[in-house]
Amino acid sequence: MSEVIFSVFPSENFIDLGLYQFGWEKCDPSHSFGPAARNHYLFHYCISGTGTLIANNTKGESITYYVKSGQGFMIFPNQINMYIADCEIPWEYVWIEFDGLRAKETIELTGLSPDQPVYKARYKDLAETMKSEMLYIVNHKEESPFHLIGHLYLFIDSLVRSCSLTQLSRGNNLRDFYIREAVAFIEENFQNAISVEDIAASCGLNRSYFGKIFHENMGKSPQEFLISYRMTKAAELLKLTSLSICDISNAVGYPNQLHFSRAFKNVYHISPRQWRYEHGSAEKTFTTLSKSE
Questions:
Q1: Does the residue 177 lie in any domain?
Q2: Which end of the chain is more exposed for a tag (fewer CB within 10 A), N or C?
Q3: DSSP characters for 148-179?
Q4: CA atoms of 218 and 52, how far apart (whole Å)
Q5: Tens-digit pLDDT profile for residues 251-283
């Protein structure tokens, strides 16, 4: 009979890298999941047994991969996939779903991609460390969010260092510098009326070239990143404060509350007011807010 441990991470307050859910399962023969697509990065590590991953590559082609004990596989955001336990030696695996503003550039360090989703460790001792970190998170779900995020970083460190493709190109050092400068500018000025031109100028680059290297490194345009950052900050304020939605709109760079509400709904698919009701730690206190919300 299948055995499962499953947990959802209790906090949305980590922007660079954050957990979404994690678990462990000892599968029944031929147990399957999918076809499905995830919104975030989802990594499985096979502890024992074998199984099959069927996933779309960058061309939209469905490719079959066989995964055995000591290997793993990464599922990428919006990638259609299905995975099936072997009928004779079903796998036991542990998984972590994560994402964040730094997720794409971090995963690139591993060499894993939709075209090469199977993890094969170059260093077995680091793979063991990685597995230990994953199981630690699964078995310590009652620890504080900061504690679990610390172990998420240790997991990712072991994942990157244990992979066969972990070398950074020296030619990317200057690009990395520009991206860091751009992100720092956004973090310091997101509450102001800044434009992509302003961000590019802070790096000393023209908009066209800046937009190109930013998208290649971050997986989204500067404008998309800025909106995502602002909405993440807005969600924090909705959850952790009793500020009115009008005040939060101004606090994240939207003088027009209607424009803010539309942008928030585009990201979270519900209104700020509804998000606060569903996620606010003290949601009952918010019912007395002004009708201007």
A1: no
A2: N
A3: HHHHHHHHHHHHHHHBS--PPPGGGHHHHHHH
A4: 30
A5: 999 999 999 999 999 988 999 999 888 876 544
